[in-house]
Amino acid sequence: MTTHKLNPLIIALDVATGREAFGLVGQINAPDLFVKVGMQLFYSEGPALVHKLREQGIKIFVDLKLHDIPNTVKGAAEALAGMGISMLTVHCAGGRAMLEAVREGVEKGASLDERPLIVGVTQLTSTTEQVMNEEIGIPGSIEKAVLHYACLAQSSGLDGVVCAAKEVPLIKRTCGSSFITVTPGIRPAGSKRHDQARLASPQDALRLGSDFLVVGRAITQAKDPVAAYQAVIKEMNEVV
Ligand SMILES: O=C(O)c1cc(=O)[nH]c(=O)n1[C@@H]1O[C@H](COP(=O)(O)O)[C@@H](O)[C@H]1O
């Protein structure tokens, strides 16, 4: 499993073209880059882009948030795992049989010594409690819903979950410290909140126990992405 020695800062490459993606990674040019290729970039550039990034020694999180019948996600997970990536996502809302199928697919597709981490999306960080209650139809608090999915993910063989930083302590207390938490919705002081609802600063996310911080627009849309990346790293390094 590719758990260890991954950079805890994941850059979300939410850009339209490979050219823009390579422009950004070339500018930042850090030795241990860990980037997220999401729907926009993967759907436009495909697996070829993943292979090209890998050739540069970059670690890759492919975030396609799988959510379909078990047989379909199993095949998708197998194909993704065969690309030599380090992390992938699936929606916990698909239920146990689907989550177990992703795990099976990953094990089938991955090489023996290296399988990607599988993390389950709990409640999107753009979702408020009101939206979850009134539109999605899940009653109660966000924390309770997120914890429910975290427990389901763990008992279905996933390595961790994607959640908001504030929810990390409860998940770690319940599922154990080795159950991985990946937290988007990260905003360094002074940056725009955009469409995110459940936010945290890089320092707060680390202090709350988050294992991986996902940062997109605060870096990729900054006037100076290199300075923005370095500022986040500096902020993270200040947390003892
Ligand atoms: O699975 C994810 O990565 C994800 C889950 C979630 O709940 N919220 C969330 O924002 N993300 C992703 O994290 C990234 C956040 O981007 P920024 O808001 O620009 O930092 C985007 O690529 C989202 O697709």
From TrEMBL:
Annotated residues for binding of substrate: 14, 36, 63-72, 125, 187, 196, 216-217
Pathway assigned in UniProt: Pyrimidine metabolism; UMP biosynthesis via de novo pathway; UMP from orotate: step 2/2
Gene Ontology BP term (one): 'de novo' UMP biosynthetic process
Catalysis: reaction(s): orotidine 5'-phosphate + H(+) = UMP + CO2
UniProt enzyme class: lyase
Matching CDD domains: OMP_decarboxylase_like
Quaternary structure note: Homodimer.
UniProt name for this protein: Orotidine 5'-phosphate decarboxylase
